[in-house]
Write a structure and sequence with these properties.
There is one protein chain. The chain is of the alpha/beta class. The chain is about 35% helix and about 20% strand. The chain has 16 helices and 12 strands. Helix 12 packs across helix 13 and helix 13 packs across helix 16. The longest helix has 18 residues. It is globular and about 65 Å long. The two termini are about 15 Å apart. GO terms for molecular function: kinase activity.
């Protein structure tokens, strides 16, 4: 293979993984029959708009429902809206919530509270819902929640720890949406973007019992050295902000189904690579940890494979984290992983790698044009060196986007309208050509 052919194979495999998790594929088989009353669709997250679009088409085309029996609201990330007629779609901030998400969450709660016993509340939940459905607990304002979210993101805290805090500072997360919809029947369908597909972690579990506690939320802030705002500290010491637990009446008429998960995307990636004659070794489906440290581990595995005699792909999923050390740097965990690979594998021939977020955005400022990750190869280091750039300097400054803008290695997909976490493919032991 030429360098271009390697990159094309990596992109083809990544795109197959994303396509396998699109709402158009995974949502329709699980949509329930309409009730006597209304179907009320409440969707959130990066795939929220696409979920609403798919559900609306299903109930209009298959069951002939009109606006009198089909309604709802989807809150999705900016740039991820899809066209609908009966279900309203609004765009809001992610990963840091904004005023649009605040209003969208308030409207979502109000719609849920209006549901009657003959209605079906259909909650379509995807990754990103935690930021899109923002409803601060009593005594908190949006700015304080924004600051807390930013601090947790910068601390390197994993998503389950971040969501533990979020759930105890919210009127919608941690099972509270189910409480609002009670006694109507509530069916939740979720596209998982979290390791181990824990329902209470996906979008901070708005429709399921919450096993975490106020004490857990306080411990998470302490563990990751996030000093809480006085209003946050007060809220996390208020028993009224404890989330509903198993056995609560709010869950007596609810169900929850994961309709797509990271493992499904990983399977599609593996099949694409194997069809191309590549041996696949799954390093881990739910890897967590510091991006640069995981990259160093994978680079060591890659060096051990060189000379194997045939192409091998090290494939992994999960969600990595970045602890911000520099100032003004740009990038997310996938780009930092890729940049660390460039550093670790400098001088090693015959490799190429793709690291990308299946939602189409890896870090960034919340714009639809944010990169999804990066595609790098044995020539990336040389291209950087020719421009007088040092990978170590950029890595220390957490500026992976700046590095890859110069080397031409950014992965740009645009919004994918789904989210099943990150995919990483490290292709090893292919005869190396001169760098492009």
């Amino acid at each position: 293979m030429t360098p271009d052919e390697r990159r094309a194979l990596l992109r083809r495999a990544f795109d197959a993984g994303v396509a396998a998790a699109h709402p158009a594929i995974c949502i329709p088989p699980h949509l329930p029959e309409p009730p006597k009353g209304r179907v009320i669709v409440l969707a959130a997250g990066k795939g929220g708009g696409a979920c609403a679009e798919v559900a609306e088409a299903f109930y209009r085309e298959k069951h002939g429902l009109g606006p009198d029996r089909l309604t709802g609201l989807a809150v999705t990330r900016h740039g991820h809206a899809r066209p609908t007629e009966f279900i309203k779609v609004v765009e809001a901030g992610h990963p840091v919530p904004d005023a649009a998400g605040l209003q969208g969450a308030a409207d979502t709660i109000a719609i849920a509270e209006e549901a009657g016993p003959d209605d079906l509340v259909l909650a379509l939940i995807t990754g990103g819902g935690s930021a899109n459905w923002v409803a601060p607990a009593e005594g908190l304002d949006l700015a304080v929640k924004q600051a807390t979210t930013k601090a947790l993101l910068r601390s390197g805290a994993p998503i389950d720890a971040i969501n533990t805090v979020r759930k105890h500072l919210s009127k919608i997360k941690g099972g509270r949406l189910a409480r609002a919809a009670h006694p109507a029947r509530l069916v939740a369908l979720a596209i998982s973007d979290v390791p181990r597909d824990d329902p209470s972690v996906i979008a901070s579990g708005p429709t399921v019992p919450d096993p975490s506690t106020l004490a857990d939320a306080r411990a998470a802030l302490e563990r990751f050295k996030v000093e809480p705002h006085p209003d946050v500290a007060k809220a996390l010491n208020d028993p009224a902000n404890e989330s509903p637990k198993p056995g609560d009446a709010a869950f007596e008429n609810t169900s929850f189904t994961v309709v797509s998960r990271p493992a499904d995307a990983l399977k599609a990636v593996i099949e694409t690579l194997e069809q191309a004659g590549v041996e696949v070794r799954v390093v881990g489906a739910d890897i967590e940890g510091e991006a640069r440290e995981v990259a160093a581990e994978h680079a060591a595995l890659a060096r051990a494979i060189v000379g194997n005699g045939h192409p091998v792909a090290l494939v992994s999923g999960g969600e990595l984290t970045v602890t911000i050390r520099g100032k003004g740097g740009r990038g997310g965990p996938n780009q930092e992983y890729a940049l660390a690979l460039v550093k670790e594998l400098a001088g090693t021939p015959g490799w190429a790698a793709l690291a990308g977020d299946t939602d189409g955005a890896d870090g960034g400022g919340g714009a639809p044009t944010d990169p999804a990750g990066a595609v790098v190869d044995a020539g990336s280091y040389e291209r950087a060196r020719a421009k007088g750039m040092d990978a170590v300097v950029f890595l220390n400054g957490n500026d992976s986007t700046g590095f890859f803008e110069e080397t031409g290695d950014l992965l740009n997909t645009g919004p994918t309208c789904t989210n099943v976490n990150d995919l990483r493919i490290l292709l090893v032991d292919i005869p190396d050509e001169a760098p492009r």
